[in-house]
Design brief:
3 strands, 9 helices, DNA-binding, elongated, homodimer, mainly alpha
Chain lengths: 207, 207
DNA sequence: TATATCATGTAATCGGTTACATGATTAA
DNA sequence: TTAATCATGTAACCGATTACATGATATA
């Protein structure tokens, strides 16, 4: 079997360009951190790599935007080839998710942990996940002001959502559903962390 | 800062040796697939790499077990240096979990998906996650018969769990808690998949 | 004064996956 | 007869992270 020329992260960047309209690598990094953090993470260096890859594939094109006293912005937009690639990707089966959570390993081997050390790790995770939950609840939907909606934007160009006043008014239902995912998963995780912390603290007591 | 000489996967293998007693690389791979799948995955090649790494660190030692008509088994056991490393790891802060789920990317950019393609992916994920749930419910606890419990096993060697009849009788509480994690997360995921599938099918109807 | 933001890239490293390699036994 | 299981490893590749590199402006 041939190696694929693109990867999930590639389509993450491509999807953002299709969804939000033309923007720079820097903008994409911001959006990745704000919108895609519950699904996929990326360092800025990787985003620039993917943009390079996609230019070679003719999935995106670049226009230089000159600025005084700052480095020029390179604004990328999706091409029709890119649009087709995005749809093609949607037709392919998705790789099933594999968790890689170090905290779970530490809990699994909790027998070998000083209880206070494990409790400390659980509390740290609680803080982190509660912060995430707050952020998701505050609304992943709100689009950062920097990125303008161009004519390539989802609202005018979606090939599959019918154009009605309802869909025009409402926030994107898929984005809403992703936000919901992030929220319910964080809630479940947090509840479990509380349970686990209680368990660890009880073991601590009985010593 | 220095690069660490070991990684989560390293401690996954080390933890299994501490928890279950001495075993071969092949056994470890089986256990990884059966016990650690909700936390971390590993190819067999990587497990052999980690064993090599840990031998160099003196965290494990190897004894050859000769067999007729089959390749010799190399049985690894944790050393006292390894025990110390495992405890040291528990004292270090854990990296916070980052999700990388391709299906979520596809849902996020669902506007660009032919509805039937997205629905198909959601149904495939439902089957997969429901199978996982069944497996987790059936009991991750049940230890495969191949691996014997040696004297290095958790029940006799846990430095932090007091030796009582209660803990002796009960399954390991940490393992139970991991099983619980796997179950509640799968349940939440599945519920969300149903919701999302319904949404996608309704959009489909309105066309 | 010092950190954060804006803005784009390259280089080095490495964990993790896939493919390659071998070969006997056993169950469908 | 085909595939799975037992059993261990090496080699190639690559996605992803970290560090290196530059430099102006604005805010604390």
């Amino acid at each position: 079997m041939e190696r694929p020329e693109a990867y999930p992260i590639t389509y993450g960047v491509l999807g953002l360009l299709a969804f939000m309209g033309p923007m720079s690598g820097y903008d994409i990094k911001q959006l990745f951190d704000h919108m895609l953090s519950p699904m996929w993470g990326a360092a800025h260096s990787q985003i620039y790599n993917e943009l390079k890859r996609m230019r070679e594939l003719d999935w995106v094109e670049m226009q230089r935007e000159e600025q005084e006293a700052r480095p020029d912005r390179k604004v990328y937009s999706i091409t029709s080839t890119g649009q087709a690639a995005l749809i093609e990707w949607q037709k392919q089966p998705a790789e099933v998710h594999q968790i890689r959570d170090e905290l779970l390993l530490k809990v699994m081997f909790g027998t070998f942990a000083p209880p206070e050390a494990l409790a400390e790790n659980l509390r740290k995770a609680l803080v982190e996940h509660e912060m995430r939950l707050i952020n998701y609840r505050a609304g992943l939907q709100s689009i950062p002001p920097r990125v303008q909606q161009g004519e390539n934007t989802r609202r005018g160009k979606s090939p599959y959502l019918p154009y009605t006043e309802a869909t025009e008014q409402a926030a994107d239902p898929f984005l809403a559903q992703i936000t919901r995912f992030a929220i319910v998963m964080e809630e479940t995780y947090i509840k479990w962390l509380h349970e686990t912390l209680e368990m660890v603290e009880h073991v601590d007591d009985s010593c």
